[in-house]
Amino acid sequence: xxxxxxxxxIVIYMYYNDAQQHHLPHIHAIYQGEDVVIAIEDGKVLAGxxxxxxxxxxQTWVDMRREDLLTDWELAKAGQAPVNxxxxx
Length: 89
Prior knowledge:
The chain has two helices and five strands. The chain is α+β, with helices and mostly antiparallel strands and 89 residues long. Strand 1 and strand 2 form a beta hairpin.
């Protein structure tokens, strides 16, 4: 599971061929042992949870980087390595 971005202690991952579990394009965000799965299309939480402030940061980043994330999703779905995406600043 390659990390595609990191900001404010939050690491964003995208699994290869991970459509079986959630069936929607999504990312995994991990912060201090908390793990949340976020839908790329609308930023909704699909599973897990994390600190509300950090979750809002991830959702804001997803909104800003949606196009890049969807491109990475297609790469990962095809078994290819997703590319790194600019962090939230």
